[in-house]
What does this fold into?
Amino acid sequence: MKKWVRSGLVWGGILYVITMVLFPLIDHEKFDTTKILLGIPLWIVTGLTIGYLFDKKKKTTKARKKG
It folds into this structure.
């Protein structure tokens, strides 16, 4: 597994837990199974996007320092 994919999945997992579990617990909301299930692919895509963008930025920063 590529490093940016693993990093992105970790980011997605962290953000998923915060937004779908912790915030509803803090606000004393009921858990909606539809919302929880729809959040999984949303946060996977979001996490992978974050991981890719962080990896891309790191590569361009290294290229600028070398050049």
Summary: The first helix runs from residue 3 to 26. The mean pLDDT is 93.
